[in-house]
Amino acid sequence: MYQEKVKVLWNQSVGPEYYRIGLTCNHRYKDARPGQFVMLRFPGQITPFLRRPFSIHKLISDNNQTIGIELLYKVVGEGTKKLSMIQVDDIVDILGPLGNGFTFSRHYKTVYIVAGGIGVAPLVFLATYLRAKGVDTAKSKVFLGGRSKDDLLCRDEFIDIGMKIQVTTDDGSEGDQCFITHPLDVASKGGRPDVIYACGPLGMLTCVLDIAEKYRVPCQVSIETAMACGMGACLGCAVEKKGPEKAYLHACLDGPVFDAGIIKI
Fold first, then answer.
1. Which of 73, 100, 190, 213 is the most buried (most CB within 10 A)?
2. How many domains does the chain have?
3. Do residues 12 and 130 share a domain?
């Protein structure tokens, strides 16, 4: 974990309310795992007072050296609105990489990735990582859902990685008009994958967990939740743990990626 002031390389709009920001970083981010995150703060900021968590979207490399990270974010409040106005060469303060990321087994050959809206942010990094690990991307599939076509992000990146894509929207503006979990259910029934990875709204993740349990597929989910510190000090990102007694895990320390068998959502 490193705290450092870093320079903004770019901050580009990629659609209504969506942006990508590139940041320089410590070269040791080369060891970051998909699903890990950073806590970001503007030096000298008064509001918002607390740092904000952002999943690592991509590693930025030059001559096979990691020189930066890219974050994908949606403008949803005061903090992300201010972030969208940051300019190239401005300085921000980041703390990371934090948390536990997705895990991989050499036995995984066919992978399903399920992304809902901005939940796609850590999954491009994951897809790149899986290809490097030897996963047959032609046999793997991405299920990409959003409220409308404006919420469908990163399709070109997944296509470049070699993965097939299934698209749905709530309003029918692109792809099938249904929740993304419907085609996931159909596909899992017809050809059980070795693992399902998912990130998105809690309602979507609940359905993904049900599908994984129904077809007995290993499943890992990245939980989107508010975090005040990112290091377990505030205990504000509690996730209920499965078991006979009520107990909690914390997304910043125990997650944000969890095995589907250990949490209640």
1. 73
2. 2
3. no
Residues 6 or more apart whose CB falls under 8 angstroms from that of 186 comprise: none
Token output for 89: 């060469």
Range of the domain at 40: 2-98
Residue 142, strand partner residues? 113, 165
Mean pLDDT of the chain: 91
Residue 26 has, within 13 A of its CA and on its CB side, a CA count of 15
Give the model confidence (pLDDT) of 176-218 as tens digits.
Answer: 999 999 999 999 998 899 999 999 999 999 999 999 999 999 9
Whole-structure pTM value: 0.93
CATH code at position 66: 2.40.30.10
Task: Determine, yes or no, domain membership for 140.
Answer: yes
The CA distance from 85 to 208, in Å, is 35
